[in-house]
Amino acid sequence: MPLVPAITDLELLTKHFAVAQLLAWNRAAVLSAKFDRDELSVSIAPSHIRESCAILRDDSQAQFNFLSDITAVDWYPSEPRFEVVYHLLSIPRRDRVRLKVRLPGSDPCVESITTVWPAADFFEREIFDLFGIQFHGHPYLRRLMMPEDWEGYPLRKDYPVEGYR
Amino acid sequence: MGHLTTSPTIEPGQDGTMILNMGPQHPSTHGVLRLVLEIEGENVIRIMPDIGYLHTGIEKTCEAKFYQQVVVLTDRIDYLCPLTNNLCYVLAVEKLLGLEIPERAQWLRVLLNELTRINSHLVWLGTHALDIGAMSVFLYCFREREDVLRIFEMVSGQRMMTSYFRIGGLALEPPLGFFDRVKKFADSFPKRVDEYEELLTSNPIWVERTKGVAYISQEDAIALGATGPTLRASGVDFDLRRDIPYSSYDKFQFEVPVSTDSDVFARYILRVREMRESNKIVQQALAGMPSGPVKADAPKVVLPDREAMKTQMESLIYHFKIITEGFAVPEGEVYQAVESPRGEMGYYVVSDGTAKPYRVHMRGASFANLQALPKMCEGRLIADVVAAIGSIDIVLGEIDR
Questions:
Q1: Which residues in chain A have their CB less than 8 angstroms from residue B3's CB?
Q2: Mind listing the pLDDT tens digit for each residue in B76-94?
Q3: Are B51 and A145 inside 8 Å of each other by CB?
Q4: Which CATH number covers residue B200?
């Protein structure tokens, strides 16, 4: 499909349940929203991410009952450096939404959502392992892919592709 | 990969329990999965998967390649369904580019994807039966798998690492005789599935080993992120091909098998029925295959035909440009998910406007499905762990990436 300009006006996006419910719950939690290439992204204040996920899961209209994916992007050298990206899926409504939080480069830390979806366990461990982002409240935050004694976080942009030799 | 610590969370010897290490070289873990089991007699108390032995940093490598070069890497993620991975990645980049794909290319993609599903399910059925002790099924399944691999070889030159789907369409028009060969396979395949079913479905040993084993409730399956046949066996009627269609899947008629038994036998029955449905889709694709080009009309993105390159100046220039500089993709991000044989395969691609992806993340279906394994096994017999691992159909390449 040909590209169309993205919609970023919050008022125009309230027809999407995810935006409407989050705004109704707490206006301060939603920093911005964007509808681009048929996909909705909502930027959330880092301190509200766990509650936002719980609201979207339990809301009778939004029904985002499934956690598809969590990942992170490193926007080095700009600040806030890290972006943690959550992809939620509503199985009954066949709809998706992307939640994003931005975290600072020094001591990046965000609340874990393992209490909302146990599925977040491996995803958060993987991000901790490869990006060095801490998840508060995660039951077992240890390296998942790399060896325990590995130094550095390979998916950060300042980590060379060939590794340190 | 917590393999340096001998006991990740489990303290050995509590209440007379014992720690048992399974893998990473255990034949029934389908690769290099390591499980740390805490057992009391024959019962599994706790189970802890340990992964990362096959981690090759594919996501990092993608950031250093041009968009068209990443296609080759996607084959290596889930080596049992390379074409599904190819499809998911090229769909994501095409969405970023806003590229329209010719109908023939879309239909060929569907056809090859369903053959891939059959291929993957055949490997699963063979190895799963072998794990549980039915040796001959393996030989039957690999007989048909060979036919599918020969079809892939015919169309792409490779049996497994096909890289046949490219951004903007397909690598080539399929060779002469391709459709006849697929037709011959699709006509004979339902009888072959009958043969597997005769060996297993009413076999008392098979039923005894699989019925009621590795139960997981619907709530747990959703909360733990299980997808694909593992989720559908728990009674969730959800298939991305039907519910969030891509690549013109909405033009095909097929059923999505669902069961509420949530055990190993239900997952077996679902996958066998899925093979039959896939075969139906292949037949429909053969019957209604549209004519036309297999590449989009986008000279800056799609490599020109060799013939045009040798005769036309512009084609030669475009070819040189794409190979040496790649092509710039407009800024943005997309998450594209497809129904792989194992469940939801998702690619999250972020572009910063250059010719190399800023970030590529793969959501492997097995990665999430593996998290459901402890729930299936805890409190049950140790002998059933092998059946449970087989029933979620994991591929470690996709888990560790």
A1: 147-148
A2: 888 888 999 999 999 999 9
A3: yes
A4: 1.10.645.10
* CA triple B62-B68-B73, angle to 5 deg: 45
Q: Does residue B45 form part of some domain? A: no
Nearest CA in chain A to B33: A145
pLDDT averaged per 10 residues, chain A (length 165): 78 81 84 88 90 88 89 90 92 91 90 90 91 90 86 89 78
Strands A134-136 and A109-111: parallel
Q: Are A38 and A62 in contact (CB under 8 A)?
A: no
If you measure CA to CA, which chain B residue comes closest to A2? B98
Residues of chain B with C-beta less than 8 angstroms from the C-beta of A130: 59
Helix then strand then coil, % of chain A, to nearest 5: 25, 30, 45
Q: Tell me how close the Cα of A130 comes to any Cα of chain B, in angstroms.
A: 10
Report pLDDT digits (tens) over A39-71: 999 999 999 999 899 988 888 888 899 999 999
Domain boundaries, chain A: 12-110
The Cα–Cα gap between B333 and A120 comes to 21
Specify the number of domains making up chain B.
1
CATH of domain A12-110: 3.30.460.80
Of the candidates B185, B262, B176, B173, the one whose C-alpha atom is nearest the C-alpha of residue B216 is B262
Q: State the first-to-last Cα distance of chain B, in angstroms, to the nearest integer.
A: 13
The answer to whether position B140 is within a domain reads yes
For residues B341 and B117, the answer to whether their CB atoms sit within 8 Å is yes
Within-domain flag for B282: yes
Contact B225 A140 (CB under 8 A): no
ipTM above 0.90, yes or no: yes
The reply to whether B212 falls in a domain is: yes
Domain range for B148 is 58-400
A85 CB within 8 Å of a chain B CB: yes
Bridge-based pairing of strands A109-111 and A66-74 is unpaired
Tell me the pTM: 0.91
Partner-chain residue, chosen from B96, B236, B370, that has the shortest CB–CB distance to A91: B236
- From the list B60, B223, B363, which residue is nearest A68 (CB)? B363
